[in-house]
Amino acid sequence: MSTLNSKRPVNLNVLGWFPLSAMASITHRITGILLVAGVGVIIYLADLAFTSAEGFASAKALVGAGGIFTFLLWATLVVLGYHLLAGIKHILLDFHIGDSVAAAHGLSIAVIVLTAIDAVLLGAWLW
Question: pLDDT tens for residues 6-24?
Answer without folding.
Answer: 777 777 776 677 889 999 9
